[in-house]
Amino acid sequence: MLELHNGALHVSEILARWCDEEARNNYGAYIPFVGTVRSEDSIDGLSFDIYEPILENWFSAWQFKAKEVGAIVKMAHSRGDVMLHESSYIAAVFSPKRRVALEMIDSFVEDFKASAPIWKYDLKGGNRIYAADRSTPIKNSGLLGKKS
Amino acid sequence: MVQVEFLGPISKEPMQLEASSLHDVAKVLNEDSELKTWLESAAVAVNDTLVSSLDVALKDGDKVSLLPPVCGG
Asked: Pick from B45, B65, B72: which is nearest to A112 by CB?
């Protein structure tokens, strides 16, 4: 399940709802990761653009990968502005046993950071500034920059 | 015609190009000096599938997307 929300995520509602959704499905482990906007570099908050078609393809591939080991993944992310101490990202893995979920939440979140088509901007003094220095080129980037 | 879209922080309107492969798209986009840095760091998708080579044939109505470096979460 992939959820995109306008603005900050309602963390307790999402975590409780996901827990309820899977309560009777015999998963022994539920491991959520919650990303919260921290106060640093004088920012007022963060803002996000998302390209949904490729995000959906990326997430579907992860659902397939999780299913192969009897697990499921869920993810929620914000579009637009999220202010300090609010949350913009929640990921979770449910699996029959803890080891699969512990390993999958790590690889899922790392691949999310490297591959999900989401762009982050710092909100600072009324400006929206692309977080270029914290961004990662997607695999096979730069193709068009090469001489052909 | 092929539609080229610039995603995220690349503030550029979509373009319509005559192109039969990504090599043709690269040739046109490299003539735009404002795009130089983005071309060196952007990933490329054709019809919402990321590609790993310019050897991709394009047909009328195809969509080419440029995805600059990402940072979700």
From this structure: B72
